[in-house]
Specification:
2 copies of one chain form a homodimer.
Chain A lengths: L4 E2 H6 L8 E6 L2 E11 L10 E7 L2 E5 L2 E5 L3 E5 L5 E16 L20
Antiparallel strand pairs in A: 2-3, 3-8, 4-7, 4-8, 5-6, 5-8
Chain lengths: ~120, ~120
């Protein structure tokens, strides 16, 4: 029998910040958890929307014309093509959903690009 | 500026059980919240997987060969084509993700089929 996917338990196995881990797949989408702290890089995903759901902590999704600040239990979908920069003052745990193959750094690439990993 | 989507707040506006409400869209997927209690109908979605994430309460996803019991913070993806019947002893609040146009009762249809609604 399949077992429930406990998001908090999965997050315990995540060691690196800003390195999403795939916990499940929904058709051709990847369901990920990620730990973040500090500021990421400005980037956009030209081909896809991206869903952020805060599981614990607080996340600011900076946009060029302002920012959306998310608390636990709050979500936001960054529309495709929109530049954004996620930022968290304290450690924040997220669920992140986007199509498999989507790079975490989008069109920016660079040293913070993470390879896809499953846990 | 866009605003955060607070899932608990959205759920306060949901009055009917087993009637999913769309709170956001991710490409051609619908992000929904739903209140459930009691047993639904056996059905399957021949064309798509379906993601259940428990936001509060507890949900049993019955399958023909057993069941997966989900608590708060736990999720499960029912694979496409697999018969299932969600069931909750007490009131349970869920996030439900699947492609827009997917019927809540899948191939079973019947009186519990809900029309798509946004809140």
């Amino acid at each position: 029998m399949p077992v429930p996917i406990n998001l908090a338990d999965k997050l315990k196995a995540v060691k690196r910040l800003w390195s999403p881990a795939i916990v499940a797949r929904l058709n051709d989408y990847k369901i990920q958890v990620v730990k973040v702290k500090g500021e990421f890089v400005w980037h956009r995903h030209p081909e896809t929307d991206e869903l952020f759901l805060v599981l614990s902590g607080s996340l600011a999704v900076r946009l060029r014309d302002g920012e959306v600040v998310l608390s636990e239990g709050e979500m936001f979908v960054v529309p495709r093509g929109i530049e954004h920069c996620p930022s968290a003052e304290g450690e924040c745990h997220l669920m992140l959903i986007e199509p498999a193959g989507t790079s975490n750094t989008g069109d920016a690439s660079g040293p913070r690009t993470a390879s896809e990993q499953e846990i």
